[in-house]
Specification:
mainly alpha, 3-stranded antiparallel sheet, 6 helices, globular
């Protein structure tokens, strides 16, 4: 988790230091129509939706983090993929919380009030693939973690439904209905 946080925060730092807001850089000029690094300040939630409410999403992220911290020790050691998904989700959530807390501190110093700063707190996004909203490493971690967790749950449900007895035998519920 620490490695993912370092990568997330380092890449955001590099973008903030080298690109102005809304400035783009094409690391591979031949692919500039499809991929650039674009400095975006996202004050909203996922993919920039609900601008100005990112601080509220920060509270959701903190709740998720608490849930993961409490549940992680209960996951069996042999369920390593579940643990990986939880680490990815936690790293991504914490990476974006760090951004929002950092900008809340900076903005409250200039506005003189945390309440005035909250609607303007933001996350630094920069991966611009042109067919999708701009995102960052933390977002990638959350999406990957949730995808893995969804796959695990889907596999468990599939396995459970295959283990159920065939519909030919009357079940206890069917017997009561007759």
């Amino acid at each position: 988790m620490a490695l993912l946080l370092v990568i997330d925060q380092a890449t955001k730092f590099l973008v903030r230091q080298n690109l102005a807001v809304n400035e783009s850089w094409a690391p591979i000029p031949a692919l500039a129509r499809f991929f650039t690094i674009t400095h975006v300040q996202n004050t909203g939630v996922a993919f920039g939706s609900m601008p100005g409410l990112g601080w509220l999403f920060m509270l959701v992220n903190l709740t998720v983090l608490v849930g993961i911290v409490l549940y992680y020790p209960r996951v069996a050691a042999n369920q390593w993929l579940t643990k990986v998904s939880m680490v990815l989700i936690a790293a991504g959530a914490l990476g974006n919380v760090i951004d929002r807390v950092r900008t809340a501190v900076l903005l409250s110093a200039t506005t003189g009030s945390l309440w005035q700063a909250l609607p303007r707190v933001y996350v630094t996004d920069f991966v611009d693939v042109k067919i999708w909203p701009v995102w960052n490493v933390a977002d990638m971690c959350v999406v990957a973690g949730v995808s893995i967790l969804a796959w695990i749950l889907w596999q468990a449900e599939k396995k459970e439904s295959q283990a159920e007895p065939a519909g030919d035998e009357p079940s206890e519920t069917n017997e009561r209905v007759r």
